[in-house]
Amino acid sequence: MKLRDLLGQDILGNDAAIEPAVAALEVTGVALDSRAVKPGDLFFALAGSKTDGARFIDAAIAAGAVAVVGDHAPAACKVPFISVANPRRALALAAARFFPSQPATIAAVTGTSGKTSVAAFTRQIWERLGHASASIGTIGLVSPKRTVYGSLTTPDPIALHRQLDEIARDGVTHLAFEASSHGLDQYRLDGVRVSAGGFTNLSRDHMDYHPTVAHYLAAKLRLFRELVPPGGAAVISADHDCSAETIDAATSRRLRVMAVGRNGNGVGEGIRLTEAVVEGFSQKLTVQHRGKSYAIRLPLVGEFQIENALVSAGLAIGTGSDAADVFASLEHLEGAKGRLERVGERNGAPIFVDYAHKPDALAKALQALRPYAKRRLIVVFGAGGDRDAGKRPIMGGIAAENADGVIITDDNPRSEKPEAIRAAILAAAKGAREIGDRAEAIRVAIEELEDGDALLIAGKGHETGQIVGSEVLPFSDHEAVAAALASRVA
Ligand SMILES: CC(=O)N[C@H]1[C@@H](OP(=O)(O)OP(=O)(O)OC[C@H]2O[C@@H](n3ccc(=O)[nH]c3=O)[C@H](O)[C@@H]2O)O[C@H](CO)[C@@H](O)[C@@H]1O[C@H](C)C(=O)N[C@@H](C)C(=O)N[C@H](CCC(=O)O)C(=O)O
Ligand SMILES: Nc1ncnc2c1ncn2[C@@H]1O[C@H](COP(=O)(O)OP(=O)(O)OP(=O)(O)O)[C@@H](O)[C@H]1O
Ligand SMILES: N[C@H](CCC[C@H](N)C(=O)O)C(=O)O
Ligand SMILES: [Mg+2]
């Protein structure tokens, strides 16, 4: 591909004036990391949070880069250097041209909590309506032909566009994916042809990355302000403090706003929840859409799953599916792995694994399980190392307030001292116990369960490792529960 075609008029026209010989260079790949450069690649030198890609330009050239894109030229560069104002965005747009195929219908969802669930639900709804569907996010790529574990919620633009191109060529026509605030802030998903955007909620998260909550919200709102094109659908949960600002952002862009939830618009395009009753491990809902009423039995535990289900339904309806079919399909939803998943029981007490690793999610998960604890609600959890330390005491307080028994344990201490993380949580969790070894904490909690209790094991959800230092030790809450239950029988 010629360099001029890869960078295109939108990048070259606005920023860089390049010579015809450079424009005609043949480029055989794109790279954002010098260590991944192959001969013929165009290297994007990105200023990052740890280092500056410009420091690796020589290494990229030594590996075969034929030209470099960046925002500040080095003193000397042995290959052509193309200066652009926003190299991250230029990379995303170039990756979209290099990997040109994308599913025809793409929905992106953002919000502090619920993204993985919404992406999985939207994929399931489309699948049931007969579309070849996929999802991409924290649990990786799930598609009819391949399932690939991913390490980021929103992959880097090269990985993302490579996957979009592959699944589109596999025949996938519908994709739902997660737009993390990091991904939006770093322009990872610019270049994706998004037909609809979804917004669940906003609460404290990633305060180690975003300087302020306003910055965090602004990153999320890029989805509506810059990525979903005018005329596209914006499905917004209407029940939060930030809902009005989100709806305003979408309205100013002339998006088709679909407000969903208790404050949703049931007369127009939105979805209004008028009734929700817990029935065993299901919830009976009544919703209104375009003035019509629908009764739905949602086979999921947790009030927050109603929000996720309604945003997903909105994304499917907003991209052209029939409302009655969509609402009927909600009756078959399966929760994403490790999201309030019932993984066993002992002495009649249900045991749930959940991915709540931030304050609001932990509160919501505990509140969701309260109806299942006639006696005591027990929680086992920790907090990740090298992540926002401010959330630790907040989560400790939430656990003490919402549970009747609290065991503080480890959850990916990374480079930090595990006992210091536990101490920070314990300081605000009056009466909590401390058992650092997570398998042991789970075993003790299960051992003590009695009829009428319920147990929540929070923080790791689908994860399959415990990160200690720079090592990832094999660990899964699911396996730890199975082992604890099996050791009881033996
Ligand atoms: C803090 C953060 O978000 N970092 C992301 C960012 O890296 P960066 O550009 O800041 O990296 P850097 O280490 O400073 O390096 C700068 C540049 O030099 C390059 N380099 C570096 C070394 C070298 O030898 N050669 C070289 O070329 C790097 O490739 C990079 O382009 O851009 C990279 C490419 O897109 C990401 O892989 C990387 O994610 C890191 C691994 C990460 O851990 N991110 C987490 C925090 C994250 O993104 N999480 C979100 C939210 C999760 C949620 O849902 O809660 C996610 O979407 O997963
Ligand atoms: N709509 C919601 N409102 C509040 N809490 C929720 C909601 N949906 C999920 N949760 C809680 O957040 C946890 C993570 O859910 P999910 O993985 O769907 O969200 P996410 O936004 O993808 O999170 P992450 O950014 O960590 O990947 C769940 O296990 C649950 O505890
Ligand atoms: N995307 C989140 C996941 C956190 C999961 C939790 N188990 C932890 O390690 O803190 C992060 O990387 O911050
Ligand atoms: Mg996620």
Automatic annotation (TrEMBL):
Annotated catalysed reactions: UDP-N-acetyl-alpha-D-muramoyl-L-alanyl-D-glutamate + meso-2,6-diaminopimelate + ATP = UDP-N-acetyl-alpha-D-muramoyl-L-alanyl-gamma-D-glutamyl-meso-2,6-diaminopimelate + ADP + phosphate + H(+)
Keywords: ATP-binding, Cell cycle, Cell division, Cell shape, Cell wall biogenesis/degradation, Cytoplasm, Ligase, Magnesium, Nucleotide-binding, Peptidoglycan synthesis
Binding, UDP-N-acetyl-alpha-D-muramoyl-L-alanyl-D-glutamate: 32, 34, 153-154, 180, 186, 188
Chief location of this protein within or outside the cell: cytoplasm
Domain (Mur ligase C-terminal): residue spans on this chain: 338-461
Mur ligase N-terminal catalytic domain residues: 26-98
One Gene Ontology cellular component annotation held by this UniProt entry: cytoplasm
Top EC class of this enzyme: ligase
N6-carboxylysine PTM positions: 220
Localization annotation: Cytoplasm
Domain spans labelled Mur ligase central: 109-315
Metabolic or biological pathway, per its Swiss-Prot or TrEMBL entry: Cell wall biogenesis; peptidoglycan biosynthesis
UniProt: ATP binding residues: 111-117
Cofactor (UniProt): Mg(2+)
Changes after translation: Carboxylation is probably crucial for Mg(2+) binding and, consequently, for the gamma-phosphate positioning of ATP.
Annotated EC: 6.3.2.13
A biological process from GO: cell division
Positions that bind meso-2,6-diaminopimelate: 387, 411-414, 459, 463
UniProt GO molecular function: ATP binding; magnesium ion binding; UDP-N-acetylmuramoylalanyl-D-glutamate-2,6-diaminopimelate ligase activity
Function: Catalyzes the addition of meso-diaminopimelic acid to the nucleotide precursor UDP-N-acetylmuramoyl-L-alanyl-D-glutamate (UMAG) in the biosynthesis of bacterial cell-wall peptidoglycan.
Family in the record: Belongs to the MurCDEF family. MurE subfamily.
Protein name as catalogued: UDP-N-acetylmuramoyl-L-alanyl-D-glutamate--2,6-diaminopimelate ligase
Upper classification of the organism: Bacteria, Pseudomonadati, Pseudomonadota, Alphaproteobacteria, Hyphomicrobiales
Gene: murE
